[in-house]
């Protein structure tokens, strides 16, 4: 059985972007807005070297909400995938939920099974890739990420990203971190202390 690190995307791997129309910090809506935090690539390399499989688990409801197009969402993903490939970062799978319960695009607006905090994608990865969830980790910047990891039985790290502070406060992560670099240090130190 393999161990994995499940990573949320926006606010963990790439910055949230101020949308002047809403005044809110939102996911990038075009490839040009995709801006990775410093140290992401080397942090992901460290996890791969330590033997972890990497999975991306991301809610992307902004098409369902009428804020962007599916094409733009895919273009942002393709840019991210390209950056990872150029840097020899291997994600075993990318899991995106495009749904939202209160969206305005009927086909994508319902209570789905795959939206975090539901652990659907983590359980799917465990089955499809023989992942030991109890030896795995979920990293995210919102309570929904932590609740997702807790529901799946992983350890959890909450990143206290400044622009997503309004989405935190009720979940119980195992660890807190300032950014992905700190989160990865926690995982590597923990793995050294408690080797499996
Ligand atoms: Mg996030
Ligand atoms: Zn979904």
Automatic annotation (TrEMBL):
Xref: InterPro entries: HAD-like_sf (IPR036412), HAD-SF_hydro_IIIA (IPR006549), HAD_sf (IPR023214), Heptose_bisP_phosphatase (IPR004446), Histidinol-phos (IPR006543)
EC number: 3.1.3.-
SUPFAM superfamilies to which the protein is assigned, alphabetical: HAD-like (SSF56784)
A Gene Ontology term for the protein's cellular component: cytoplasm
GO MF annotation terms: metal ion binding; phosphatase activity
Subcellular location(s) per record: Cytoplasm
UniProt xrefs under Pfam families: Hydrolase_like
Record key words, sorted: Carbohydrate metabolism, Cytoplasm, Hydrolase, Metal-binding
GO biological process, one term: carbohydrate metabolic process
Lineage: superkingdom: Archaea
Gene3D superfamilies: HAD superfamily/HAD-like
NCBIfam families referenced in this protein's UniProt entry, alphabetically: HAD-SF-IIIA, Histidinol-ppas
Protein family according to the UniProt entry: Belongs to the gmhB family.
Descriptive protein name: D,D-heptose 1,7-bisphosphate phosphatase
